[in-house]
Design brief:
Blueprint (H helix, E strand, L loop, with lengths): L1 H12 L1 H11 L10 H17 L6 H17 L9 H13 L6 H12 L13 H16 L1 H17 L3 H7 L2 H10 L5 H11 L1
Helix pairs in contact: 1-3, 2-4, 3-4, 3-7, 4-6, 4-7, 5-6, 6-7, 7-11, 10-11
Length: 201
């Protein structure tokens, strides 16, 4: 709870995060699900995971990494309906972050996290503990949202966007629980491994 509260405060108060909210907005496909609300939830939860996860980072380093996690969370599904959207999202992240007061390695960490958020077999982060933690937190935050959101909102938004018939919805519906079970074993952080399976059950 404490980490989530800190992450929510960051989301609404931090100048870099507020700036990215405006910059990312035009690249999020709200009409077809996985848009603004999803990006916001993933950003906040990725920052909370960074703060909660056992690591060798100092409190000050965690707080800085939480800001980067929110930037990555806002960008992770930008241009979602493009082919290879994770890779293209990473390129977009590097372009957008060029004007931000970040160290070059911080920009790279955000881009690496975005590039690897889609699949457990995607590109793995390289670099120091902070880079690995950022990528792991973003991946886990994105997958943690699958359980609470997919049947409540995301599925229906996708149905409306793609104009699925009732028959198509019925055909695709069993894929959700199957995917949730598969995702359950892919979490990278201790925190998500502890709580994730309950959310995806």
């Amino acid at each position: 709870r404490q980490e989530l509260d800190h992450a929510k405060d960051l989301f609404f108060d931090n100048p870099l995060v507020l700036r990215m909210q405006g910059d990312a907005l035009g690249f999020l496909d709200e009409a077809c699900g996985l848009g603004v609300e999803h990006a916001k939830k993933v950003a906040v939860e990725a920052a909370a995971l960074v703060m909660a996860e056992p690591s060798g980072l100092t409190q000050e380093e965690r707080r800085r990494l939480a800001i980067l996690a929110e930037l990555a969370g806002l960008l992770h599904d930008a241009i979602r309906h493009e082919e290879r959207h994770a890779e293209q999202g990473a390129d977009l992240a590097l372009r957008l972050l060029r004007g931000y007061p970040l160290a070059p390695e911080e920009r790279l960490w955000v881009a690496q996290a975005v590039a690897g958020h889609e699949s457990p077999d995607g590109p793995q982060p390289i670099g120091p503990e902070a880079a690995v933690l950022l990528a792991s937190a973003l991946y886990d935050a994105d997958k943690l949202r699958f359980g609470p959101d997919i049947f409540a909102t995301t599925l229906w938004e996708l149905c409306e966007c793609d104009e699925w018939t009732l028959e198509e919805i019925a055909q695709r519906f069993p894929e959700g629980p199957k995917l949730a079970r598969e995702l359950s074993g892919t979490f990278r952080t201790v925190t998500a491994r502890q709580h994730g399976p309950l959310l995806l059950a």
